[in-house]
Structure formats: structure tokens, C-alpha cells
Amino acid sequence: MIGSLSFSWTQLPARVPTHFGLSGPPDSFGPKSSLLALPVIATVLYVGLTFVSRFPRVFNYPVKLTEENQARLMPLGTAVVGWLKAEVLWIFAWLMLTTVQIALGRSSGLSAAFLPVSLGVVAITVGFFWRRMLKEA
Fold first, then answer.
1. What's this model's pTM, rounded to 2 decimal places?
2. Which residues contact 7 (CB under 8 A, 6 or more apart)?
3. Helix (H, G, I), strand (E, B) or coil at 109
């Protein structure tokens, strides 16, 4: 994200999309400096999830964590956080690249697939690990 933004910074217009409607076209614009928020937010989320992943004992598991099942459940809890970190970065990268493309006039809007794909990937990941945790309990 930072590389793509750095590479295209001088080509970006003064006003860039800052919000998108459900159907994809931008419906709000702001200064190009507002694009700096995307890598900052992504980094904060990544660091926050990295910190949280160090404490799998306090995660909200779908079953009660016991001495008998914690050796099986805690690695799954840590794994789901790892997958979510990767997914958050990809979602923010997709948003950043699309926003830059729109600002440069190379695209007209955010893909209609953005929201369902982003939410779907996260939901499938959480559902997959939720199911595995229930089996391991």
C-alpha cells in the first residue's frame, strides 16, 4: 500500500475519493493526504491483532476453555487471528489500489464485489475456525 501510494503520489489530483456508495462509485471526496489514513489504519489493525494474538487464553472461544482442550483450541485461536491479519491487509490494499485508480481516472468506482467479497472472506475464515474449534472441544 505504501509503495503504490508513494509511486503515484505526484500524479494524484488534489482531491481523491474518500468514501464509496454501496453500488461502488465514490460519493465523497477529500484531500489526497486523506489516503495516508488507509496504510495507517491497516498498520494499527495489524499491530493490534499481532499484540492480541500473544494472549490466546483470553480469546472468546465458542466453547469453554479447559485444561483438557486448551492445547487444541489455543493454536486454532492464534491461527484465526493470523488469517484475519492477512485478510485485513488485503482488504485495505484493494481499497487503496482502487482509490488510486479512480483518482487517476483509470476506474470509475469500487467494484460491486468489494463489500460481499471482503465480508465473505472474513465470515468464511471465522466460520471455518469456529467449526474446527467446536470439533476440537
1. 0.90
2. none
3. coil
Residue 18's H or E segment, with its range, is: strand 15-20
- Phi and psi (nearest 5°) for 108? -105, -15
Q: Please give the DSSP secondary-structure letter assigned to residue 9.
A: G
Closest CA to 42 of 97, 10, 89, 90: 89
pLDDT in tens, 41-99: 999 999 999 999 999 999 999 999 999 999 999 999 999 999 999 999 999 999 999 99
Q: Which whole-number Å values give the CA distances from 55 to 3, 17, 33, 46, 74, in the listed order? A: 32, 38, 35, 15, 9
Under DSSP, the state recorded for 33 is: G
> Would you kindly state where each structural domain of the chain is located, as residue ranges?
2-136
In angstroms, the CA 118 to CA 129 distance is 17
Who contacts 45 (Cβ-Cβ below 8 Å, separation ≥6)?
85, 88, 92
Place of cell 489504519: 41
Which residues have a Cβ under 8 Å from the Cβ of 126 and sit 6 or more positions away?
A: 80, 84
CA–CA distance, 101 with 37 (Å, rounded to integer): 17
